Amino acid sequence: MTDSGLTRLDGRAFDEMRPVRITRGFTDHPAGSVLVEFGKTRVMCTASVELGVPRFKKDSGEGWLTAEYAMLPSATHERMPRESMKGKVKGRTHEISRLVGRSLRAAVDLSQLGENTIQLDCDVLQADGGTRTASITGAYVALADAIAFLTERGVVPGKPLLAPVAAVSVGIIDGHVALDLPYEEDSRAEVDLNVVMAEGGNFVEIQGTGEHGLFGREQLGEMLDVAEKGCSQLIDAQRAALGW
Amino acid sequence: MTDSGLTRLDGRAFDEMRPVRITRGFTDHPAGSVLVEFGKTRVMCTASVELGVPRFKKDSGEGWLTAEYAMLPSATHERMPRESMKGKVKGRTHEISRLVGRSLRAAVDLSQLGENTIQLDCDVLQADGGTRTASITGAYVALADAIAFLTERGVVPGKPLLAPVAAVSVGIIDGHVALDLPYEEDSRAEVDLNVVMAEGGNFVEIQGTGEHGLFGREQLGEMLDVAEKGCSQLIDAQRAALGW
Amino acid sequence: MTDSGLTRLDGRAFDEMRPVRITRGFTDHPAGSVLVEFGKTRVMCTASVELGVPRFKKDSGEGWLTAEYAMLPSATHERMPRESMKGKVKGRTHEISRLVGRSLRAAVDLSQLGENTIQLDCDVLQADGGTRTASITGAYVALADAIAFLTERGVVPGKPLLAPVAAVSVGIIDGHVALDLPYEEDSRAEVDLNVVMAEGGNFVEIQGTGEHGLFGREQLGEMLDVAEKGCSQLIDAQRAALGW
Amino acid sequence: MTDSGLTRLDGRAFDEMRPVRITRGFTDHPAGSVLVEFGKTRVMCTASVELGVPRFKKDSGEGWLTAEYAMLPSATHERMPRESMKGKVKGRTHEISRLVGRSLRAAVDLSQLGENTIQLDCDVLQADGGTRTASITGAYVALADAIAFLTERGVVPGKPLLAPVAAVSVGIIDGHVALDLPYEEDSRAEVDLNVVMAEGGNFVEIQGTGEHGLFGREQLGEMLDVAEKGCSQLIDAQRAALGW
Amino acid sequence: MTDSGLTRLDGRAFDEMRPVRITRGFTDHPAGSVLVEFGKTRVMCTASVELGVPRFKKDSGEGWLTAEYAMLPSATHERMPRESMKGKVKGRTHEISRLVGRSLRAAVDLSQLGENTIQLDCDVLQADGGTRTASITGAYVALADAIAFLTERGVVPGKPLLAPVAAVSVGIIDGHVALDLPYEEDSRAEVDLNVVMAEGGNFVEIQGTGEHGLFGREQLGEMLDVAEKGCSQLIDAQRAALGW
Amino acid sequence: MTDSGLTRLDGRAFDEMRPVRITRGFTDHPAGSVLVEFGKTRVMCTASVELGVPRFKKDSGEGWLTAEYAMLPSATHERMPRESMKGKVKGRTHEISRLVGRSLRAAVDLSQLGENTIQLDCDVLQADGGTRTASITGAYVALADAIAFLTERGVVPGKPLLAPVAAVSVGIIDGHVALDLPYEEDSRAEVDLNVVMAEGGNFVEIQGTGEHGLFGREQLGEMLDVAEKGCSQLIDAQRAALGW
């Protein structure tokens, strides 16, 4: 049950997003470069373009899009060892990279892209919960800029960019459905749901986990209601950032 | 929309499971060893026990449970390179290992286990879709046997085993909601949903992906209906195998 | 000295094999798939085929055959860490993979195979001594099925399959020469000899190690006598399984 | 020969630094967090603190300081593969990490630090030449903040922070000695010299390389003159940022 | 059949060793350091000592001995990639390291060594066939020196060194049994047998492979005759080098 | 201040090299193979040649030269773990490999080499300080032999070999500038400077580090004076070894 009478540790209502900021042109080299902030969570999302496609797509006439997510070692409350130095990428990192890739492939029509590859990189500068959802949300804007860049140069045969895709987390904390969890809430949530939504309200992906408890159909419904609201606001922010 | 008038390539109704078989005592060394079969998908699920816990659980009075999932190289239609030889574990493997671990931790009360560790291994002998859901379903039975083994030896202070947990995949194929997808269906499904359910109908985890298309609230509801039916049958099969 | 008056822990005579079972068609995807059992040792041996050869064989007109051996982590009495997760393949694993490859290349005339590659995989489901010799013995049957498969499809120009190759271990335990050692015997044998033999009695490979003591020419002779007997029986079992 | 009459591509005099900016408190979690900018080169330098020291320093009564340098994959003109994904850290990365560590250890009296460890991380957000010298310059400020943090908490027995250390690159381009090379100049410099200097004008480290040509004693002298000037300005900027 | 009438490419009789040289004190730091040469094959064999034993031997009262074999990249006719740079140790390297370790453990009574560890390193400076047998032969001499070193320092409670162990290769080339094969012969031998023998004529290990053909009991006997002769000469050379 | 009145632990004057020996033709397979000794430091330097160039040099008409440096595990006072077994190359190894490569590329005109590759390997057999400078000095001689080898075979279009390049270390110990530091001095030097010089006195590379203290312009000048003297002697030794 959402309860707008109570507020949270940071003063937000249960169905309220943290302040969201999307800064385009954050760095100069990539075709698209965005800093996305969900409260204190800050992710640098870039979209680099490359002519040509990986071997399994050669001569398909289609393009390709792939994504990598990573945390800077000092992004977390306690510094984490650098994955490159350990020579091993953690399961969590792989899992999120794959989620970001799948989510953004839902925002692009590869058959319209020509044989070009877009590489998304989501590097977390500061982590305070919701890094994967911020990554997806920011990556869409970087993707839009990269496709515009390619289109300007005349190498894109069609109109590959589809409607905006954004993502948000919802959780149940002390029985309350809460939107956009910061680390402090995330670590003690009973249930954690990440929702990737396309403009119009349909889902690209949903992932719900009962971290410390199970959840039923009714709770799922309440969480999805709140998530839809959050995603709509994020899509507004994406559109605003892009000047659409 | 489920359509019980039509049937599928393998003759099943859309809301029908493939034949499920659970064989206990498949091998002799682990405390629990199960062969689980969903149609042609065959997974060897074992639960090995170890006295003591990893460092981060030391002196907590609690136990620990972890899981690893892997495919034999010849399990798939086309042989896949062996991960140990490449020196790299694929993102997909990590992702499923983590899912299995989270799902089975929902089936055990670690505070009742004492400082013991249970290691689950799900090794796919033959893959025909649904390997992760078969793994979770089989692992519960192996886990139950391992806990019985520990209890018999008197090293478990409490009653750590919780109610059964099972998992099933649902997809949308040519607009039809279909239960327990084999590889042929899985590879062309528009939407793919994996549901991990505890006895009683509450969810441990749901993961839905619009592989080739988006999905709305209504479709999600239909898929969950069918998944719940599948999970209930699987829990019956687990109980039957365990002689409960 | 073999001593047929005494028997062993498991009741066998010193020159007696454990029960051997060879099950063809164990899984469906590979061209050849065999479950081989020497007592409680169980190995899944598959032969996968691929058109084309590795670079160093290109345009040679010849085929290639290679093998990989591995243990499932729960195959042993104590669970062993998964090699893929450690990112390192153990020396023992490499050593046995190479032995299996060399042994089976002695069972095939690569010049008759055409530019095709056969990949053997020997995955130990349960280990109780003799996993390398069971692997070789089972792999021959999988190889035969794979070559039949290729021949049927008309891609093999000649008759690549040579006479059967089988392998067995012999050891000296408390001064007795003993055939086909289970784990319990293997771990305390003074001498350990693995013999790979082709039908007709000639050797493909012999590897003898004085694990806890040296051995002389006479003992070697006695061990080879017993090994030859064991290999002959295994070749009979291979022929029976193949219906030859 | 420096030639103040001529100017460079970006309009600077040959002995002029690019605009330098040092922003403290760039992120919130580490004890020290600095964004340093030399023109378009931008590096996030953090100093994380940990109670205790690595094994080789245990019971020495001294602290330890170590550093890691890395580039984000999208920091460069052309995107570079992520080192964590390749499972290999490049030689260049190792070399610079070691240089940063040595340079900053010259800015701290470990015997005054107590058994505490300071971990520096220099992550390049955008690369345009001089990333290693910017890293050293920014890391000093992060280090100062981290030591202040530790001192406030009362865990530092003495006064470990020594006088400022800064670094700059100098090169010879078309015969001219030029200060603080951006990528475009760096890639075609005949000689490249990195100078790490402590306040007062003494050197911590100098590394000079004739990338496309040799250099003599006289040229070395001219380059050091210009480098000293650059380092002095950087130390002024460090002091200003720290409010000293 | 050995045929002393014919000679080989290098003028040797079929049962003749290449010139063998064993140089003690080849380098200064290790407790034992030997350069062993079998013709043009040159291996640096060192024995380093360490107080204490690995964990699995702790408090056993026994010592431990382990070995590593490697080739310098420029040791072979064609340069080979450096294993450290590839991040992978080849199966062949593992296999030989394990053989050297087993062979030399047969030359030491670990219960007499005290809780000390001897690490053997066999680094091939130049390879011309027989590198593994030269390694074993040289390593015995380095081991003897290392044990003398430990004994002198009073840290060895007993007399751990056993009788000499040496190794040699034998092959069948064009039907002739030939001793101590150089690369040119080794690469075209029909059968290749490596024999590790202890003084007195008993075997530590034998490994025979039909590289391009099978071999029978009679051929095995002939090869062992020749190998025994070679090993005896090598043991004489070891004794001479040690001044025994 | 150099002080020729005092002498060092090993009896040398402060500006005196250890005995230098350069042995050509140390091994037979590589095109150039040199053993270089600076006192007890011994490095095997080889130059292997390969027709063709790496991809980034294809169709450039130019050749390529690269270098790898490594220590044998038993080369040091205390045995060091083997990098290939750890699966990781240390930062120090990378750093020196890169230094050797850059230094020797200054001794070759790649545009005169044709599309051929020269691979230098510097493997330290015994380490007693100055391994990197000995490596560079010896590698020049191996390089000269390899280029002569290529020239003889007619595959080199021009005259790629440039004037000799040699390297030496200088340090400040107890306030004295000292040439060519052995390990015992190196480990306690206040300042450590490595100088790579081409014949004629110009620098290829200088790397100076204040390991336990800073250094000023004057000290740098004194160290360079001594280093130049050392390098000149080394170049004389190179010329003598080459019979020039």
From TrEMBL, chains A, B, C, D, E, F:
<dbReference type="GO" id="GO:0009022">
    <property type="term" value="F:tRNA nucleotidyltransferase activity"/>
</dbReference>
<dbReference type="InterPro" id="IPR050080">
    <property type="entry name" value="RNase_PH"/>
</dbReference>
<dbReference type="GO" id="GO:0000049">
    <property type="term" value="F:tRNA binding"/>
</dbReference>
<dbReference type="GO" id="GO:0000175">
    <property type="term" value="F:3'-5'-RNA exonuclease activity"/>
</dbReference>
<dbReference type="InterPro" id="IPR001247">
    <property type="entry name" value="ExoRNase_PH_dom1"/>
</dbReference>
<dbReference type="GO" id="GO:0031125">
    <property type="term" value="P:rRNA 3'-end processing"/>
</dbReference>
<comment type="similarity">
    <text>Belongs to the RNase PH family.</text>
</comment>
<feature type="binding site">
    <location>
        <position position="92"/>
    </location>
    <ligand>
        <name>phosphate</name>
    </ligand>
</feature>
<dbReference type="Pfam" id="PF01138">
    <property type="entry name" value="RNase_PH"/>
</dbReference>
<keyword id="KW-0698">rRNA processing</keyword>
<dbReference type="GO" id="GO:0016075">
    <property type="term" value="P:rRNA catabolic process"/>
</dbReference>
<dbReference type="InterPro" id="IPR027408">
    <property type="entry name" value="PNPase/RNase_PH_dom_sf"/>
</dbReference>
<dbReference type="InterPro" id="IPR002381">
    <property type="entry name" value="RNase_PH_bac-type"/>
</dbReference>
<comment type="subunit">
    <text>Homohexameric ring arranged as a trimer of dimers.</text>
</comment>
<dbReference type="InterPro" id="IPR018336">
    <property type="entry name" value="RNase_PH_CS"/>
</dbReference>
<protein>
    <recommendedName>
        <fullName>Ribonuclease PH</fullName>
        <ecNumber>2.7.7.56</ecNumber>
    </recommendedName>
</protein>
<comment type="function">
    <text>Phosphorolytic 3'-5' exoribonuclease that plays an important role in tRNA 3'-end maturation. Removes nucleotide residues following the 3'-CCA terminus of tRNAs; can also add nucleotides to the ends of RNA molecules by using nucleoside diphosphates as substrates, but this may not be physiologically important. Probably plays a role in initiation of 16S rRNA degradation (leading to ribosome degradation) during starvation.</text>
</comment>
<dbReference type="InterPro" id="IPR036345">
    <property type="entry name" value="ExoRNase_PH_dom2_sf"/>
</dbReference>
<keyword id="KW-0819">tRNA processing</keyword>
<feature type="binding site">
    <location>
        <begin position="130"/>
        <end position="132"/>
    </location>
    <ligand>
        <name>phosphate</name>
    </ligand>
</feature>
<keyword id="KW-0808">Transferase</keyword>
<dbReference type="InterPro" id="IPR015847">
    <property type="entry name" value="ExoRNase_PH_dom2"/>
</dbReference>
<keyword id="KW-0694">RNA-binding</keyword>
<keyword id="KW-0820">tRNA-binding</keyword>
<dbReference type="Pfam" id="PF03725">
    <property type="entry name" value="RNase_PH_C"/>
</dbReference>
<keyword id="KW-0548">Nucleotidyltransferase</keyword>
<dbReference type="GO" id="GO:0008033">
    <property type="term" value="P:tRNA processing"/>
</dbReference>
<dbReference type="InterPro" id="IPR020568">
    <property type="entry name" value="Ribosomal_Su5_D2-typ_SF"/>
</dbReference>
